[in-house]
Write a structure and sequence with these properties.
single chain, about 500 residues, mainly beta, five-stranded mixed sheet, four-stranded antiparallel sheet, 6 helices, 36 strands, about 40% strand, disordered N terminus
């Protein structure tokens, strides 16, 4: 049974507040999701999953990396129908794959894919460049064929010179930051103070203090402190302890994993969620580079060995919701959380269909069928898991009540990860949503997809994109946008 508009409103109105003990938002029969091509996505072992339109046909495609012995896959999206072509185009590695990220390092309009492996595999990481027919590994030629327990990979321009740089986090070695010199990458992490030697398994870049430079949060495991590296231009300084964001005092059995950034309360400032073993953190952005930890107060502190996290307004009510998955080896009993944003607190929005399949690693919200409603892609590396894709079946009028914004440079290319998108009620400064152009979310992944903002009404909006530049934060504004267009591309000068 698909959700009708009437049952949608009834279910939403009847949700009890609070994640613990409250009635679920969706009855099983009314769940607004359905499996997509379940036979195709049934193979277990999925770890990173990330989306991008690699062939430029206007439809987002999906890369999934797998554990040892299962070939990595690339699913080409043909107007909502998927075909697996990984081996055909040269991406079918059989090596244990723990990270993947799409980005355009050479600014030619074609997206490249960096793939990270485990140290025990003995394999060097790969950088695949697409030549229009196949993906060719150019990592050695460019100096990024490194080895280690690779976790988060991010394509970002940390020094605002217009070229996309590469960050690689390791669980077993100091992190690396490769500066893009044009025809080669050079590791500058040690020189800049961002070579964190702790056990990093997750990372996200965002301008945490509004100074026009991307800063770096790293989530570290095995009781080690988390880091928040403030980008001062010529040096990175770890201010996590000073700001109370380092998770000091936790035991060795605790640690943080998948961080993600979103403006959960629509105040115009980007907040930070950190999934973890032991507990989660939600840092509310107070402005001026200060944060307050509010996870327990907002009902999102729990999580059995929480690993990935990702934000998405799946019901287009104007408030971003949060998916968090947990990883448990024995027995296979993941406990996933779908936290529905009720405004003053998060409630339990988990849906039986999704809970039955679950995730352990990759979580991505993405509108793969271009109908305006966010769909959900999960990756599960347990023996009974799959890497399932769920279509959001909101009624068409509700699905269309959203706007999706692609941010590109002056050449129309996706080189501005870390830019901020804000949507306002037209002619006002009332914030309807704030999002970050992805720099690494959903755990060990980075996608190149439009940012999605659900809208509480179908009225016109103003869209502002804030980019990081050599001269500071630069705002590009598009006024009086009719949400009926749904997809908006904002070009930065």
């Amino acid at each position: 049974m698909r959700l009708t508009r009437r049952s949608f409103i009834k279910a939403g109105a009847g949700l009890a507040a609070g994640a613990a003990g409250g009635r679920r938002l969706w009855a099983a029969a009314d769940a607004p999701f359905e499996l997509v091509q379940p036979e195709l996505f049934a193979v277990s072992g999925g770890q990173p999953n990330c989306w991008a339109d690699f062939d430029g046909d206007g439809w987002l495609d999906l890369f999934v990396g797998f554990k040892d012995g299962v070939a990595n896959r690339l699913y080409r999206n043909d107007r909502g129908r998927f075909t697996e072509i990984g081996a055909t185009v040269g991406l079918g590695d059989l090596t244990d794959t723990r990270a993947a990220a799409w980005g355009d390092y050479d600014g030619d309009g074609r997206l490249e894919l960096y793939v990270g492996f485990t140290r025990r595999s003995g394999a060097a990481n790969k950088l695949y460049r697409y030549d229009g027919t196949r993906f060719v590994d150019v990592a050695h030629d460019l100096g990024v064929d490194v080895k280690g327990e690779t976790r988060q990979v991010s394509w970002i321009d940390f020094d605002n010179d217009g070229r996309v740089d590469l960050f690689v986090a390791f669980r077993d070695a100091p992190n690396m930051l490769f500066h893009n010199d044009g025809n080669r990458f050079v590791d500058v992490a040690k020189d800049l103070g961002v070579d964190d030697p702790r056990k990093t398994v997750g990372a996200v870049w965002f301008d945490m203090n509004d100074d026009g430079r991307l800063d770096l949060f790293v989530a570290n495991q095995d009781g080690t402190l988390n880091g928040l590296f403030r980008n001062d231009g010529t040096r990175f300084v770890d201010v996590a302890g000073e700001l109370g964001m380092d998770a000091a005092g936790r035991p060795q059995t605790s640690g943080s994993n998948g961080p993600s950034v979103c403006d959960y309360d629509n105040d115009g400032r980007l907040d930070l969620f950190v999934a973890g073993y032991g507990r989660n953190f939600l840092f509310h952005n107070e402005g001026g580079g200060r944060f307050t930890e509010v996870a327990a107060a907002m009902g999102v502190a729990g999580g059995d060995r929480a690993t990935p996290s990702n934000w998405g307004d799946y019901d287009n009510d104007g408030r971003p919701d949060l998916y968090v998955s947990s990883y448990v080896d024995r027995p296979v009993n993941e406990h996933d959380f779908l936290f529905h944003n009720e405004g003053s607190r998060f409630g339990d929005g988990m849906i039986d269909l999704i809970a039955k399949h679950g995730a352990t690693h990759g979580v991505q919200w993405v509108d793969f069928d271009r109908n305006g409603a966010l769909d959900l892609a999960l990756a599960n590396n347990n023996p009974t898991g799959g890497h399932y894709l769920f279509r959001n079946t909101l009624p068409s009028d509700r699905a269309r009540r959203s706007i999706q914004v692609s941010v590109v440079d002056q050449h129309g290319h996706h080189t501005r990860a870390g830019s901020e998108v804000r949507v306002f009620a037209a002619g006002t400064r009332t914030v309807l949503g704030s999002r970050l152009v992805d720099t690494g979310s959903g755990y060990c992944s980075q996608s190149v997809i439009p940012v999605h903002v659900g809208l509480p009404t179908a009225r016109k909006v103003d869209v502002e994109v804030t980019a990081m530049t050599k001269t500071g934060r630069k705002v590009t504004r598009v006024a009086n946008v009719d949400p009926k267009i749904q997809f908006l591309t904002v070009t930065l000068g």
